[in-house]
Fold:
Amino acid sequence: METIKRQLIELKLPGMAKALEVRNEYALSERLSFLDFLSLLLEDELSSRRDNGYRKRLSRAHFPSPKTLEEFDFRFQPQLNKRLIFDCATCEFIRKRENLLFIGPPGVGKTHLATALGMKALEQGYKVLFTTVNEMINSLVASKADNTYHLKMRYYLAPNLLILDELGFKRLNQQTVDEFYEIVSRRYEKGSLIITSNKSFEEWGEVFWDPVLATAIIDRIIHHCRIIVIKGDSYRMQNYKQKRAKTENDSDK
Ligand code: ADP
Ligand code: MG
Structure:
């Protein structure tokens, strides 16, 4: 047993090595054929590789905090099209290399939904990267100084789904809008984007500094895109109000 385990490890089959003893006992007690025994062990190796692959992709996705669709309270945002969100969770938009755009004021759940859809994409085997627009642009600008620009570009172009959070928090300037255009145009029809923004479309012209580039960017983002506008109340604020009311009630007693 120990020799076979060592050989499996040397052959880089750790999933089989881990399951060998249990599967062997099971095979003996159930009088499995050699082929059935081998098939079980191979399934163990495959499933351990799938788990490892998922874990690796999850840590590389850099989600700020894990969020799921199941945790999202759709009753709090009744005008939000739940059917559309669950359609997006099938990841058909990633297969078609389309984009999603969440627009709405702070606290309505844009980052939550973007993350939850990103987690669904991971489960389906896609590579996902989450970043804020600012973080991406700062790292691209900095990479020019230390000659790692091409590497950084590849980092943002490679994932099947790139989630760009918080577009519009800061106005882009001449240099930074160029970087943003580069990413959007090079991913166009090659990989999906989810973008969240607290600015309405009419205000995007201001965000992108140069009106010509702004038009070019908007054109490429919305060509194959589902736009989801969330108009409801801030969940954070609601939570805060509820907690405050409870504290005040408690202290009145
Ligand atoms: P936004 O990105 O629109 O500013 P977030 O997605 O960061 O908002 O949401 C703020 C907080 O409220 C997060 O902790 C998020 O999980 C939670 N939240 C927002 N909307 C809902 C909702 N409808 N159901 C459950 N939690 C929500
Ligand atoms: Mg947010």
